[in-house]
Amino acid sequence: MRIWARVFSVVALVGVLFLPWSAPSEAGDDVATSGTYVADLGFRPNVNGFAFENYGSEAAVTNLTSVEMRRIFGDVVCASTAKGKCTLTPEAQEWMAAQNEGMGGGHCEGFAALSLLMFTGRAKPSDFGAASIGALTLDGNQKLQREIALWYATQAADPTQAAEIRDKTPSEILDLLAKGLGSGQTFDMGIYEPGYGGGHAIVPYAVEDRGSGLFWILVYDNNYPNAVRAVEVDRGANTWRYSGSTNPNEPEAEYKGDATTYTLTLTPNEVRLGQHDCNFCNDAAAGRAPGLAAPAARYNEVWNEGDGHLMIVDAQGNRLGLVAGKVVNEIPGAQFGPQKHASPTTWSEQIDPSFRVPVGTAFTVTIDGTGLKKPGKTDIIMVGPGHDLALTGVTVRPGASDTLKLSPDGASLTYQTKDDQSPTIQLGWDGKSADYAFWVKGAAMKGGGSITVALDTAKMQLSVATTGTSAPGTYALGVERIDDQDDLSFSHDGVALTSGDTAFVSFGSWKGGADTIPLGIDHGTKGSIDQTIDLTAD
């Protein structure tokens, strides 16, 4: 039952769609499998799968908290562990927020990973309130909700992300899977749209030879509890297909691929069990708190959380992003990481993977609305070693494009728009004695204008400058300071800013005890302060 009955040639790969029969349309409907398999893990959806469906933002649940972040990465994500509580660094908060946002489309990766951990005995249903996985319930079960979120998030960090096998054809994936199942190895399977959009995670547990070069990979699809589903691989054509949706509330959808798409993938589940590399933790954080040290290779990781697509271009003109539905990676040392979660709207909408650019590489990001049929919204987030930057609440219009320049050290962000915008800009920085987070909200921008928010860590100043705006505007300012004793915050609404001026916030003099922070204004940005105002806390 667990041994390949024959030797297969190694060639194949492709997309997703359901087999030649009529695909099940309701949870509980099974495909017409023979029950005789050439490889069989012993997992069964109605015994070893969750009895409830995959869910997204429609469910009232708790996702990642600082507790799960600490389990994934260790104490290096904590700016403070006072009183045994982990207060996350600013960049850890941003990383966590990006993962929680991604779960709004679906938690499929968490379902797949946790069900396999329970199948192998590495996790126990009794720890979450039931004697078996099928008896577990989601409503009101915050511990289970957070556990599903934890295993979902491991796909976005190494070694799990690096372990995903996505350079094989469908036939090669079939061979690897059958051999692994035969020895008791467990995998989650990724099925993607071209360009790695619309990713979904399922559990492959058996392989059936249907004859004439057709094979079914039987799977537990968390969108269809208790049902026997199947991915079809045609060895002759080296293609694959599956019918299903990335979100159970969306209609049936067809996935498919071939030997050129590399959209059928496998991730060994055991690789998730250890602590993960904290790519966004700086050396100072690793030194001041016990936990897994930061990895040798360092990256700035960029996410697009919403509509449109990103194109990252370095100073030499090398590109990283989607071109004609495929990922192009020309930047030396750069990486991309497909994410298995549903599209915000339909299964077929392409979602950008996460992008990793080596630290020290300067780049510009274009936010492109080409292909959109109606205006949408997006958030752009960059997290790197000891810093984070974010531009949120951006309107993306069909055919329009805006430009975002992110400094590789996380010290500045410049946003130039062709449209009227009112984004929120956030910066985070790990200091030697304290960590800081800043936000600037509500700076009204006219088309053709730009805003730059920059951090001078030597002078302990935050600067804000706008150009090209037609009239003076106001914005809200926020500062958060975290040290080993306290987590303090300051905010002030109604900071005035005239186009061409630069405002400097001297946050170094604020230790949390005073309720004012000095603001200096350089009229015309000529290099000298013309006016100083004490901002009071709201």
Topology:
Layout: E1 39-40, H1 45-48, H2 66-73, E2 78-80, E3 87-88, H3 90-102, H4 108-119, H5 142-153, H6 160-163, H7 170-182, E4 187-193, E5 197-211, E6 214-220, E7 229-234, E8 239-243, E9 254-257, E10 264-268, H8 283-288, E11 299-306, E12 309-314, E13 319-323, E14 326-329, E15 335-337, E16 354-358, E17 363-368, E18 376-384, E19 387-396, E20 401-406, E21 412-416, E22 424-430, E23 435-441, E24 450-456, E25 461-467, E26 473-482, E27 487-497, E28 502-506, E29 516-522, E30 531-536
Antiparallel strand pairs: 1-5, 2-3, 4-5, 4-10, 5-6, 6-7, 7-8, 8-9, 11-16, 11-18, 12-13, 12-17, 13-14, 15-16, 17-20, 18-19, 19-22, 20-21, 21-24, 22-23, 23-26, 24-25, 25-28, 26-27, 28-29, 29-30
Helix pairs in contact: 2-5, 4-5
In the sheet with the most strands, the strands line up as: 14-13-12-17-20-21-24-25-28-29-30
The low-confidence runs, each spanning 5 or more residues with pLDDT under 50, are 1-28, 284-293
* Number of continuous helical runs: 8
How would you describe the shape? globular
Radius of gyration: 25 Å
- State the end-to-end distance: 68 Å
- Tell me, rounded to a whole number, the average pLDDT: 86
- What composes the largest sheet? 11 strands, antiparallel
Beta-strand content: 35-45%
**SSE class:** mainly beta
Number of extended strands: 30
Helix content: 10-25%
Describe this structure in words.
With about 550 residues, the protein is mainly beta. It has a domain at about 300-535. Helix content is about 15%, strand content about 35%. The protein has helices spanning about 45-50, 65-75, 90-100, 110-120, 140-155, 160-165, 170-180, 285-290, and strands spanning about 40, 80, 85-90, 185-195, 195-210, 215-220, 230-235, 240-245, 255, 265-270, 300-305, 310-315, 320-325, 325-330, 335, 355-360, 365-370, 375-385, 385-395, 400-405, 410-415, 425-430, 435-440, 450-455, 460-465, 475-480, 485-495, 500-505, 515-520, 530-535. The strands form four sheets. The protein has an eleven-stranded antiparallel sheet, with no helix packed on it. Strands 15-16-11-18-19-22-23-26-27 form a nine-stranded antiparallel sheet, covered by helices on one side. Strands 1, 4, 5, 6, 7, 8, 9 and 10 form an eight-stranded antiparallel sheet that branches. Helix 4 crosses helix 5 (about 140-155). It is globular and about 80 Å long.
